[in-house]
Amino acid sequence: MLYSLLCDYAGDKDHCWPSQTTLAGLLGCSVSSIKTYLRELAGQRLIAVELRECRSSTYYLLKPSFLSARAGQSNSDGGEANSGYITNYRKKETNYPPTPTPPTAKEPPSTRQPRRGVGDFFSANNAFESIWNAYPRKEAKELARAVWHRLWRQGAIRIEALMKSLRRFCRSDGWNREHGRYVPQLVNWLRGQRWLDELPSSPAAVATDHDAKVRAWEAAQERRQADPDLEAVRPQFEAFLARFRDTRLRGPAWGLWTLLHKAGRAPQAHDVADASASPLDFLRQWRCAAHA
User: Fold this and answer.
1) Are 145 and 177 in the same domain?
2) CATH number of the CATH domain containing 71
3) CA of 275: how far to CAs of 238, 243, 250, in Å?
4) Which of 15, 42, 103, 156 could cross-link to 60 by cystine, CB 3.0-4.6 Å?
C-alpha cells in the first residue's frame, strides 16, 4: 500500500517527497509504522531515500528486477518504457565549463618604509638617553623608551625642536611650581607630543602687569581727587611707606593713612617696627589699637 501511494505521488516522475505525517494520515497508521515500512521498501531495493535537512525526505522509485527484464525486452523490440515511476534513479552528471581564472591584478607599489637597521636603533636609543637625562621627572623609563621608539619609527621626532621645547618647559612656572609636582611623566609627555604645545604666559609676568595697571589706576584716582591739605602731608606718608618691603596696594594704604591723619592718629615712619608686614595690614592694626 505504501509503495502504491508513493507511485501515485510520483506520477510521471521517478521521485516524490510526501511527509511521513501525510503518509500516516492517508494509510491510517502511526508515523513509526511508516518509518518501518519505508525501511522495508528500501531493504527490498524498491525505493531509495534521500534525507534532506529541514525538509521532507525524497523517495526515489527504483525499477524492480522483473520490470527491468521487461523493460530490456521492450527496448530490444524498439519499444520504450513510459512508466516514469519505474525508471531507475540516476543522478544526472552535468559537465560545467571550467571556471575561467581571473587575471592576476598587479599589486600597487608598497608605500611602506623599509625597516630601519640596527645602527638606526642605537642612534634612537642614544637620543632617548639624552632626553631622559635632561627630563626632570625620572619615572617609567622603559615605557617612555617604547613610546620614543614608536615615534622615532613614524618620523614624528625632531631632536633639536624637542630639546628646545624641553628647555622651555623646564624653565616654565608650571613645572617649577611646588617643587615640580605638576611635571608629567616622560611617557605621557611623549605620547601626547606635548613638546608641540605653546606655553602660557608666566603667572609672575601676568601678576606684575596686573600690579602695574592697578598702580596706574590708583595714581590716576589720587590725581583726580587731589586735596591740597593732604598733598602737604604726602611726604610723611611716603616716608612711612618706605619702611615696608611690600609696597603694593599703595592706594588703599594712602586712603586709610589719610583717614587716620584727619583723626590725628596717623603713624609715622619711626612707628614702624616690623617691615615684613604690608602697609595696609599695619594701618589696620594701628587703627584697631587706636580705637581700643
Assistant:
1) yes
2) 1.10.10.10
3) 14, 6, 15
4) 15
Give the best-scoring range by mean pLDDT among 100-104, 129-133, 265-269.
129-133
pLDDT in tens, 31-52: 888 888 888 888 888 888 887 7
Per-residue model confidence as pLDDT tens digits over 196-255: 888 765 555 555 666 777 777 777 666 656 567 777 888 888 888 888 877 777 778 888
Output the furthest CA–CA distance in the chain (Å, rounded): 154
Of 33, 67, 86, the one marking the end of a domain is 86
Q: What are 2-38's pLDDT values in tens digits?
A: 777 788 777 777 888 788 888 888 777 888 888 888 8
User: 225-254 burial string, b = 16+ CB within 10 Å, else e?
Assistant: eeeeebeeeeeebeebbebbeeeebbbebb
Domain match, 192 and 208 both: no
User: Rg of the Cα trace of the chain?
Assistant: 53
Same domain membership, residue 235 and residue 161? no
